[in-house]
Structure formats: C-alpha cells, structure tokens
Amino acid sequence: MLKDQNRISRRRLLALAGAGAAGLAWRFPTPALAQGTPIKVGVLLPYSGTYAQLGEAITRAMELYVKKQGGVLAGRPITFIKLDDESAPPKGPELTTKLVEGEKVDVLIGTVHSGVAMAMSKIAREAGVPTIIPNAGADILTRAQCAKNIFRSSFSNGQVGIACGQVMAEAGIKRVVTANWKYAAGEETLAGFRSTFTKGGGQILKEIAPPFPNVEFQSALAEIGSIKPDAVFAFFAGGGAVKWLKDYAAAGLRKSIPLWGPGFLTDGVESSIAGEADGLFTVMHYADDLDNAENKAFRAAFEAEYKAAADVYAVQGWDAAALLDAGLKAVGGDASKRDALNAAIARVTFNSPRGPFKLSAAHNPVQNFYLREFKSGANRFVRNAVPALADPGTGCRLGA
Ligand code: BEZ
Fold first, then answer.
1. Ligand 1 midpoint to CA 299 (Å)
2. pTM to 2 decimals?
3. Fewest CB within a 10 Å sphere: which of 121, 126, 135, 278?
4. Per the domain annotation, does 27 fall within a domain?
C-alpha cells in the first residue's frame, strides 16, 4: 500500500523537471531559505518485497520525528519524497538519479539493502548530496569508500558480525554451522563473525549461503540436522527471517540445535514469529526494553501513533531524522551550506533510544551491542555485551 501511495509518478517527475518546478516558486517567496520553504528529503527505501516492513518502520519513525517537531526542522518544513527500491540493486542508480537530478533533493535518506546502498552512495558521493543511511550495513561505505557527505544511523555489517562472534564465543559455543544470504550483508556479517568467533576458540564447520532473497531452506536445514553443530549462526531479515524461523522450528531443530544470530532474525517480525522464537538469543544494537528515558518516550510515541511496537529499524529511522535535525539546526536551516551541514552531522552526539550515539571518524555509529532473548513477542535485554563498539573503518581517510 505504501508503495503505491508514495511512488513518484512519471507525470510528476516530468512536471518537476519542467514547468512544474518553476510553478513552485510563486507559492514560496525568494530567497530559497525563507522560512516556509520546504527542505526536500529524498527517501529511497524498500516498500515491497522481502524488506518491505523494514522500509516501512524506518519511514514511520522519520515521519513521526518530524511530526513531533511540528512538521519543521530548524524552522523549515520537511517534504519527504519517497521511492520504492524493492531491495533490487539494479534499481539503485535510476531511482537515486530521479531524486538527485529530477527532484533536486537537499538531502538523501536510504536505504535498507547493501547492494542498493552502494549504488545510491556512488551517485550521492559524486553529487555531494548529504546522505544518511538508515539501515544498509555495506562495510565499504564507512571504510574505503567513506565520504564527507555519507553517514550511517544504523551499523556496519562487519560490526554486527564482530559483536555476534564475541558473544557466542563467550557463551562457550565451539562448533557452528553458519547460514546467510549470499550478498554483501550476509557475507560481511559472516566475515565479522568469523574473526571474533574463531579468535575466541570457535570453529565453523560449514558455511551455507543461499542467494538473496531465496527462502528455500530445506536442504540447508537437512544438512544442519546431519552435521549436528553446537549451534547455528544465521543472518536473515524481514520476510526471510520469518521463513527461516518457521522452517527451523518445523524441521524439529529448535530443541536440539540452538539458533543464534544478529537481531535481524527477530526484529521487525515479532508478531509473525511469536510462537517460533521464544528463548532465542540474538545480538543487536537495540533491545525493546532498554531502560532509558529516550527509549521509553520513543516507544510510547510510536505505539500511540501507529498502534504498533517500535523495532530496531524504527530506531534507525528516528536517529536518521535526529542527525538531520541536528545538522540543519547548525546551519540555521540552510541545507545549501553542505560543508557546514556535513561537519555538523559528523560531530553530533545524543542519547538515542538505543543508548549513547556518536559517529566514528568514518561516520558509522559507535554503539553498544546487547545480548537479547526473545520472549513473549519482544526482544528483551539480557546484558550490554559489547559496549561502545566501533567499526574498524579500514581504509577510510576522513579525520586522518
Ligand atoms: C543489508 O543489506 O545491509 C541489510 C539488510 C537487512 C538487515 C541488515 C542488513
């Protein structure tokens, strides 16, 4: 539904590229910065396909943040222009170009899928548009391809894997089989996991990697059943996580082989997996019941607005809006001051619903990773397992 409501029509794009864009001018007095002139935020997210609910949670939280500020940030109304990228990397360049060149957005926010994010970021980097990534963890974007105008409000894939490997090794798990989608997110999460899990004395017996967004898991599950590892480490998210959890339970593995993974396994899909996932341990930079004032206020506001519980994706969307808010305030709402806007976003620190938030020199969050247990439909805090974890930022020269 969101997809159809928010897709930009070809007619609108044409209108904006031509007479329609000029048509806006009479409604808003010059100069462009005049209070009342909207800031255009181009939003590239999946509103259909495997990651649709992730894109929707991010959008809801961003819109709620702005609504809570009376619809304005730094005195400027915010217009979100949303496109559905379907988590399809080939769509990234065309859709980003529509936003950057067609809509001439002031700022970009997107996306969920690492492959789409890499395509989007290449264009954003070249065009110099301040860009906030509210999920996609592609390591390279805050490592070798870091840029002064690219920021993340989420995580790097490697960072998540590093935290998971450390926590599972500390739990005394020795022999695992891994299962992940074969694309940047799965592979980089696995690489991070491998580094700390093997350093902690663990051994990976077998790596299983179906292509994204394949959810035919039967042969993987049969193999796991015959190998009988101490545990399974799995990276799946959105619709794929639901299918993986249901198939894992249906294969009778839940009782015999503990399933672990990044919190993407159980986040954003809570209502679909309530029966299947009780007692499952995951590691993530958020837990639903984190005991801090920001989290309580955020969850109450989200629940009141949407009659639905917030999740980690909503937190990342909320914090993307918070980064933008802080940046815009620093430049008096003038988004054309790109260097000053970028510099301000880079130095923002605040208390997020996830806990203390700041960006590394490479613009990736330095944040706590929590061990959580899924219980009664929620991801419950167990302990702050890897406090203030930073991605290594390998190859990034920002701040050097
Ligand atoms: C990614 O593609 O980077 C990603 C997607 C969903 C959850 C986590 C990471």
1. 23
2. 0.91
3. 126
4. no
